[in-house]
């Protein structure tokens, strides 16, 4: 079973605030998450994959283009 983290711990792991992760859940673009009742949890593997997917070499990185 993969390790799960609540929003506060997940935010710390990826270097964001908890409120930023909450906003990303509303507007999209954040890491995958699951709702277990009222609890929101993140898989550690999904957090790491999201960070890797959003890694850039420079501000003009072609992968940023729409």
Can you walk me through this structure?
- This protein is of the alpha+beta class and about 70 residues long.
- The chain has one domain (about 5-55).
- It is built from three helices and three strands; from the N terminus they run βααββα.
- The protein has a three-stranded antiparallel β-sheet with strand order 1-3-2.
- Helix 1 crosses helix 2.
- The chain is globular and about 40 Å long.
Element layout with pairings:
Elements: E1 4-6, H1 7-14, H2 18-27, E2 34-36, E3 39-43, H3 44-53
Antiparallel strand pairs: 1-3, 2-3
Helix pairs in contact: 1-2
List keywords for this structure.
single chain, 3 helices, three-stranded antiparallel β-sheet, 66 residues, 17% strand, alpha+beta, 42% helix
Summing up helix and strand content along with how strands pair, one would put the structural category as alpha+beta
The number of distinct β-strands equals 3
Low-confidence spans: none
Biggest β-sheet strands, sense, barrel: 3 strands, antiparallel
Shape: globular
Count of the domains: 1
Count of discrete alpha- or pi-helical segments spanning 4 or more residues: 3
Helix content: 40-55%
Strand order of the largest sheet: 1-3-2
Distance between the termini: 36 Å
Mean of the pLDDT scores? 90
- The portion of residues forming beta strands comes to 15-25%
Radius of gyration, CA atoms, in whole angstroms: 13 Å
Order of helices and strands: EHHEEH
